[in-house]
Give the backbone structure.
Amino acid sequence: MSSSSTLRQGLDWGKLAPLRLRAKTVADGVYAGGHRSRRRGAGIEFGGQRSYVPGDDLRFIDRHALLRHGTLLVRQFETETDRTLCLLVDASLSMSYRGEGAPGAKYAYAALIAAALCKIAVGAGDRVSLDWFGGERTVELATAGGREAFERVVGALETAQPSADLKSDLPALERAVARVERRAGRGSTVVVLSDLLDLPEGAEVAIGTLGSRGKTLSVARVLDPTELSFPFTGPLHLRALEGEARIETDAAAARPQYLAALAAQTERWSERLLSRGGSLVPLNTADDPVKAVRQILDSVGGVL
Amino acid sequence: MSFLVAAALGVGLFIAIPIAAHLLRRGRAKERDFPPTALVPTSRSVARERATLEDRVLLTIRALLIACLAVIGATPFVQCSRLSLGRNAGASVAFALVVDDSHSMREKDIEGRVRFDRAMNAARELLSSAREGDAIAIVLAGKPARLALAATTDLNAARRALNDLSESDRSTDLEGAVSLARMSIASVSHHDKRVVLLSDLAGAPLSEGQPPIWTPVPDLATPLENCAIFGAERRGRRVAAHIACTSPAAAAGRALTVVGEKNVTPVPLAARGGIQELGLDLDPKLEHPELELNGGDALKGDDRSPLAAESASLGVLVAADVSNASAKTGGPPVLEQAVSALESSATIHPIALLPDDVNEYRNNALLLLDDPGGITPEARGALTTFVERGGVAVAFFGPRVDQTPLGATLEPFAHGAVHWDAKDKSDVNTASLAWLGPEASSLQDLKLQGHADLSTTDLLGGRILATFSDGPPFLSKRELGRGTLFTVALPTSVEHGNFPLRPAFLALLDYFLDEARTHRGAAQSVAGNDWTFPLNASVSIDGPRGALTVQERARTSGNAQKVTTPTLAGRYTVRIDDRAEERVVTVDPSEITAFPQKPPANAAQARANAHPGSVDASPELGFVALALLALELGVRVFRRMTRERGGAPVAAAR
């Protein structure tokens, strides 16, 4: 039995398996013209010269060539450069949670979104890197492009197993962020997939730094339907997957306060990320992954 | 308990199921993973409290439901000690319930149960076993025996009549009650007739008869130890108390005291059963004194008695000539001897002349005047006033009616001259005297020396109650004011005939004494005796338990009267017009001293009619089970609605 099969037994993939096929399906469904155009025009990187034709922007006339050769030439630039998609996936233990009615665990949903984004990026000629915080048997993938990159990303996502308590392990998170920062150059897109729960104090600051230096940051908050609605009734005895939190409560009495606290936490994250040029995309694992991917794409300007 | 009953009741063990479920639910809620637990507020007490309360309600309902089902299953197999009527092939039954409401039924047994209450419970049980078509009569055995409900098939009427019964201090009249019960169901068409006697059987032995008597609660006849004060009368500084005890054991160690008077030395009772009279000194200024027996017995209520006024005993004035109205063997006049024999407690005052002052009649209720030789105007006035105030005067006319002196008349008995007919020797018409009872027949073949001829006399509106065989009046009665005047055409002297020697003479005297008691309203009387009042008098009576109702009642002998019957011992305040007087009602000493008798021999035959009752409460329990089921559904719906109002989805976390 392969290791990935073993992991599928350990993680509740639910309806989201197999990841590879699901990711391709999602990516195909997402197609929204987000692919980079090879058309040359105004851009960042020099793409060659051509003869001037009336109507060309005079700003791009190559004056050096005119003076040297007496010929009107226009400097051309690549309209888009290759962008690196840096995926930072939360594989802490809380991501293994799957509530009633959810198609799969939060990690499975995040993996599906990550794989779909990878597929889209690879299809558009972009390079992809994969980093983790938390988790076991995680494989960090350096920036790479092409079909092999997608296969490696999918394999890494399938191999990883949510674990580890990051509640009090800020250095682990900071190390992961530092790795992403090193891989992501100016213009890169960083997508963080996490439930943002049970993270250590200062996690907002650490993750927020990924939005600096010309990078586009999108944090997709993946939550289970039960975490969003708190549908329980009667007396409850709850235990957090990370940390030591254990409480007894009455569902009806606690529901309004819980939902208010969750909304406040989401708002806080949103404000922090916005101040760093990033954005927060709330996701529900019960929602259509295609829609989720589109939300992420929208949050990063429609292209990867 | 049979195996079937035990097995059916064993269903009740399933109560353990909801209890176990409750205990499981009541425990800590199952721990569940929830990543954002840190965001959830704690409200442990609310959660536990609510779960506990809701679960307890449901647990109780479910446990009751199961218990109810178990009992429903068991009831057809249960045979209990509840009384019920056995039926011959399921046929309807006519039965007369004889409930003894006499004083002795108020006694408590050693378990603290009042005999009367037990009798009533037994009556209710028997009544509850009656079915449509059964005929029921209810007879009360307190003296006089009364029919509380004539035989009827209306079971509701029987229940109402039974509920209206209450205990009393009456004497016992078992024989009369049983006779009445037999008569009450004699005319019904039911083939199966029974007489159910619920009594302590204290009294005269019962004779056999048909239908036989069934005593379903024989324990009622268990002898109990009791002492009672059945009469207490003030006589100057002395108090005479009459006490009855069932046995020496009941009297041993007990003493008579005056309530609230520490200076009075308690007088110990003689350690013997029966009746005893005790005397003690008492401050005459003490108002409303009460006597009490210390210690305890089967009935505490009769250990205390109010003190009657000095005139409690019946006062009788006897005006008879000792020289010719006495027996030849000597002694007091025949009239006095007869009164003493009939009313031992009566206070007899022999007088030679009729009083001229009405105050001399005070404390007397009856005047017996033998062979009057005329009544002077002064004596006539005093006598008239005495009668108008409620006294009873009887004149036995003799030969001296012919010798009325000048200025004297025979008024208010008769107006005008009365002739003594020494020749006529006719007998009394016994048929006209039938109302007196069987003794009336003893007036046949009298040997008379003559009689007063009242045929031509103005009797002043008096009614003739009896005549001689040839027609002249023998006995007349005249109402005057609140009192009554009787005129008898024969003297009481044996020298003028053997009339005083016949039983009818005593019966007649007893009738006069009874009239006197009735009119006077004895200051001390036995519970259950009627108090009668003139129809035109305004009467109100306050008793130990509030006001007594005074009713108008037609009398067999003539005019209607106001009558009431005090049934409880104690002090009564009687207001007649503007005059108030106190009367004391006591218990009959025989209620204390009489021992329970054995039921008649043929009672065993009736006993065979008693069946152990089977309990069938299925309909009632079925309704209870349905109600419990509805209650559980209601509670569950209420809980669901409460949760929905709380905003939570119905899908339970469990």
Summary: The domain at 3-31+82-299 of chain A is CATH 3.40.50.410 (Rossmann fold).
